[in-house]
């Protein structure tokens, strides 16, 4: 099934059009029924006009080369190479168990905490090998923040949730500086107006979407360079999801963002780069617009048209 | 309109449904019965204890008139103000004077109405008010155990006759037995008290707590959070589980061998008792602590690691505070068990007759349960109600300790 799909140049990179294009190309009706409802046209602009082009002289923020991950004897990832650029949101898509979360967790060495996990290959942050013994893993995780699938605020006050990171890293000399950081982080996470009068209340008392934004605020409070998001919206309702996606748009440019998602429309809406994973391999990596409208690989095309996944 | 009988509405389904409900009812009744039975046992225990023990907290006192200037008590009133007042009244022959006064008041056979406890009470009264020495005074003094029993229960016939005679004159009353809470062990059941044993229990439990809690919690934290999973840690886990089930008498033998014979720590002291009980309690705390730590959700650990906390910061800022209520519960259970433990303490010599309360953890001491065991072995009938009274004191001590621990636990739970 390595048959290549005809490359049709498309005037607008949109899934709706992509779906039409597929329909035109595909012969069987089952294949055509893949994308029933595409996201709206505007959401899908792969590279928005306002975005500066990637500086060819500047290397990527994070660069992974030939990353293999083993859980015991089982190989979970097989030779993955991806660059994560500043000013871009990179989405990892693929069916369950394809290794996209595993790869994400390599980027801040969260796999270290899993007994039996072994990571080989080369991953660098700003040209520095993150698996180097000289690289301090604690500092790495502060520079590469993470937002998890299930909102996991600490069972402490909202203020303490955000203040914890700056406090353990000594980012604030005094209390007023700390309050400033907390306010700034909550504002950036779009949560300030909802919680400013109840910073002393428990973070776990917030709604799911608010909790996830609190977790994002907690991640950006330590001023990271990269933010990794592991299916940040999978436990949220559509309205909360929309808010998080909006937030990702706002954070782009300030931080390099990598997001794992099950939801292809979401990947199309929020990202400019997409990597498609399948069975522990990275099948295809490129501009989101191209992956969704003009995939080079048959497997990618089958996945995004909904034939499996 | 009639509905055709279906699988769900026909008779066999009805009877099946009835059987299901009946089974549920039976199960509930059995549960209720079990609860009722245990409540009945508890009530029976408490009522018997209270019935038999409350008498131990009261003491029969008789009124006696002493004409100090004419008695053979020779005390210099000036000496009573000095620091040696106790020795002065102790050597003044108060007991003899009391016997004389009793004979004068109640006749020949009353010469043994008052004993050492009465003499001490009289001495205390004299130190408080030396002016008594120059007058004829009327005092309420505790009678000896034999007459106390005759009054409360049934004693010797002659004792009962005398007590009834005094009572008929209105010269007998019941008072709260302060002595029982302030004195230590004695040979005379009229003079015994629980203070020495209570203090010994307190010191022992402090030693146990100070050792078992930190070591147990740190061991649990290390095993759960830091130790690699391999054959050694498996072996340690099995050993800890085994230790928790070892009979306490064996810990007593271990304490005897290690702390007394090898380390030559003072025999019968609270420190040895505390060390032995700490050995016994530690596995319980480790097991409860590990379970509490295990139940902290991994998402909290991920969250803390994700913002760049080190392993130790994760453990001490997040895992331990969240696990603390559970750890405290385990500690309460362990401490309550240690507080009620007798067998290992018998082995390390804490069953000695100790008439003075311990001043520190190296002084000879005994503990409440051992004291109860010793008194229950006595022949003298005066010890019976005192034994029950001591059990009441032990139960109250435990109740206070557990109450405090539960209060602390709830406070920690509210914070999180």
Word description of this protein:
The complex is a heterodimer of chains A (309) and B (416). Chain A has twelve helices and ten strands. Chain A is globular and about 55 Å long. Chain A starts with 14 loop residues before the first helix and ends in a 5-residue tail after the last helix. In chain A, helix 9 (238-251) links the parallel strand 7 and strand 8. Chain A is 35% helix and 21% strand. In chain A, helix 5 crosses helix 6, helix 5 (158-168) runs parallel beside helix 8 (208-221) and helix 8 packs parallel to helix 9. Chain A is of the alpha/beta class and 309 residues long. A six-stranded mixed β-sheet of chain A has the order 6-7-8-3-9-10, sandwiched between helices. Chain A has a four-stranded antiparallel β-sheet with strand order 2-1-4-5, covered by helices on one side. With 416 residues, chain B is mainly α. Chain B contains 16 helices and three strands. Chain B has a three-stranded antiparallel β-sheet. The model of chain B has no long low-confidence stretch (mean pLDDT 87).
């Amino acid at each position: 099934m390595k048959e290549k799909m005809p490359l049709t140049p498309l005037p607008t990179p949109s899934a709706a059009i992509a779906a039409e294009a597929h329909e035109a190309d595909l012969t069987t009706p089952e294949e055509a029924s893949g994308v029933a409802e595409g996201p709206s046209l505007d959401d899908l602009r792969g590279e928005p006009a306002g975005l500066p082009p990637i500086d060819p002289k500047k290397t990527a923020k994070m660069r992974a080369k030939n990353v293999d991950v083993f859980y015991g004897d089982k190989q979970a990832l097989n030779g993955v190479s991806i660059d994560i650029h500043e000013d871009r949101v990179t989405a990892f898509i693929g069916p369950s168990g394809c290794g996209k979360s595993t790869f994400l967790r390599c980027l801040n060495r969260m796999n270290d905490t899993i007994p039996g996990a072994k990571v080989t290959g080369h991953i660098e942050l700003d040209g520095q090998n993150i698996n180097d013994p000289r690289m301090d893993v604690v500092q790495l995780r502060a520079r590469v923040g993470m937002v998890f699938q299930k909102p996991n605020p600490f069972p402490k006050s909202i203020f303490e949730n955000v203040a914890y990171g700056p406090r353990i890293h000594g980012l604030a000399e005094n209390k007023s500086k700390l309050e400033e950081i907390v306010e700034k982080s909550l504002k950036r996470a779009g949560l300030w107006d909802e919680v400013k009068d109840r910073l002393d209340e428990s973070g776990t008392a917030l709604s799911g979407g608010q909790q996830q934004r609190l977790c994002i605020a907690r991640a950006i409070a330590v001023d990271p360079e990269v933010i990794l998001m592991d299916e940040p919206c999978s436990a949220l309702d559509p309205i909360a999801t929309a808010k998080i996606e909006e937030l990702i748009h706002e954070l782009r440019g300030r931080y390099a963002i990598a997001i794992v998602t099950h939801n292809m429309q979401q990947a199309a809406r929020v990202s400019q780069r997409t990597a498609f994973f399948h069975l522990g391999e990275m099948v295809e990596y490129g501009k989101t617009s191209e992956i969704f409208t003009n995939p080079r690989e048959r497997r990618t095309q089958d996945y995004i048209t909904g034939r499996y996944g | 309109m009639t509905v055709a009988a279906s699988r769900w509405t026909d008779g066999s389904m009805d009877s099946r449904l009835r059987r299901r409900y009946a089974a549920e009812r039976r199960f509930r009744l059995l549960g209720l019965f079990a609860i009722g039975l245990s409540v009945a046992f508890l009530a029976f225990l408490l009522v018997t204890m209270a019935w038999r023990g409350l008498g131990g907290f009261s003491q029969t006192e008789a009124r006696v008139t002493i004409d100090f200037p004419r008695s053979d008590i020779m005390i210099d009133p000036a000496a009573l103000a000095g620091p040696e007042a106790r020795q002065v009244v102790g050597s003044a022959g108060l007991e003899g004077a009391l016997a004389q006064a009793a004979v004068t008041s109640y006749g020949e056979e009353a010469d043994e109405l008052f004993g050492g406890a009465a003499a001490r009470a009289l001495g205390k009264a004299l130190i408080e008010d030396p002016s008594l020495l120059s007058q004829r005074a009327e005092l309420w003094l505790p009678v000896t155990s034999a007459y106390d029993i005759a009054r409360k229960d049934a004693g010797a016939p002659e004792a009962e006759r005398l007590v009834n005679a005094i009572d008929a004159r209105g010269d007998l009353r019941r008072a709260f037995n302060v002595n029982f809470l302030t004195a230590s062990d004695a040979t005379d059941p009229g003079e015994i008290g629980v203070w020495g044993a209570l203090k010994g229990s307190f010191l022992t439990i402090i030693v146990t707590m100070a050792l078992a809690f930190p070591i147990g919690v740190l061991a649990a934290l290390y095993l759960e959070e830091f130790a690699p999973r391999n054959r050694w840690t498996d072996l340690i886990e099995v050993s800890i589980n085994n230790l928790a089930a070892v009979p306490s008498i064996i810990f007593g033998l271990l304490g005897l061998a290690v702390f007394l014979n090898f380390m030559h720590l003072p025999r019968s002291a609270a420190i040895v008792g505390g060390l032995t009980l700490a050995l016994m309690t530690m596995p319980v705390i480790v097991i409860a602590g590990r379970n509490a730590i295990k139940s902290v959700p991994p998402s909290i650990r991920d969250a803390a690691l994700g913002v760049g906390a080190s392993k130790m910061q994760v453990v001490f800022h997040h895992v331990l505070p969240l696990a603390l209520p559970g750890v405290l519960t385990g500690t309460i259970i362990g401490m309550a068990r240690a507080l009620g433990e007798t067998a290992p303490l018998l082995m390390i010599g804490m069953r000695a007759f100790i008439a003075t309360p311990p001043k520190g953890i190296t002084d000879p001491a005994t503990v409440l349960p051992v004291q109860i065991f010793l008194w229950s072995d006595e022949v003298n009938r005066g010890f019976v109600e005192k034994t029950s009274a001591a059990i009441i004191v032990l139960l109250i001590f435990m109740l206070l300790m557990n109450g405090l621990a539960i209060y602390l636990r709830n406070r920690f739970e509210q914070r999180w």
